Request: fold
Amino acid sequence: MSEPFRIMTRIDFEADGRQFGHLDVPHSSNESAWGALRVPIVVIRHGEGPTLLCTGGNHGDEYEGPIALMKLARALPPEAIQGRLILLPALNLPAVLAGTRVSPIDQVNMNRAFPGDPRGTPTLMIADYLRRRILPLADAVLDLHSGGKTLSFVPFCGMHQLDDAAQMARTRDALLAFGAPLSLIIREFDVVGMLDTAVEELGKPFLFTELGGGGTATAATVRVAERGIRNLLRHFGLIDAPPEPAPTRLMHSPDASWFVIADDRGILEMLVDLGETVSAGAALAQVHDVERPQRPPAVYRAARSGMLIGRHAPGLIKPGDCLAVIATDYEAG
Ligand code: ZN
Reply:
């Protein structure tokens, strides 16, 4: 027996045309006794064809996704596509409204909430609804992230290294079609609870982005998102045209040695900037102990040679924070 949904929506996923609606997530609070959180959803459908699901606001402090998806929702006439586009520009709405990574209501990180729970807190209910009601409708999924307040990236579109060769090849084709300046293949260490895993387990292509970060969006990173979504509409056949050619560099960060984690607390001084190349053993950053100016800073060296594609964004850093991510060119194997 499958558990009934507590989330309600007036959206008809099978209707043609453009629908702006909500997923009403029951949330009874001191402020609203019989209230609901209204997670925005847009469905644009025109006849039979593939379904592409695009999500933004999985984390609430990442802005390219919500911006690009809201603009697309208003601008794209249903007649321009063949098939169905499902847009969730603010997946974790309470987090987006608060500008925080996790939901201020239940403190749950949406991207650690899967498979979700229809009897759980709001974030778990949304994850459950997405997994059981919406993912089965989708032929491919794009989840738009950026670095948020605490990380910054060279804008990239990414996918995971997958064990299934056919699924890997199909996803890599979509990754290259997206056409971000950098296309990254990563091996995730901690996949439990991720939307990524929920989609990949269904055997469907799943792409994510990390577009900039630092808690804001730039003109350039929004453009990367918008062009990438247009290209995926073309790649998956919702629009009958080839993807816009966009130069992209296919790279990967194959294991934990490509990630630098801080051991010290203090002020972060990067010695290499995003997009620059480092050699294994070269100094990458140093952390200054502001209460002991006489003490030399702790120096962090790159374990690998490659491009600095990600860094800790705030000026202050502490043990356990991700300080840097390095990637190298991907040799197809
Ligand atoms: Zn994110």
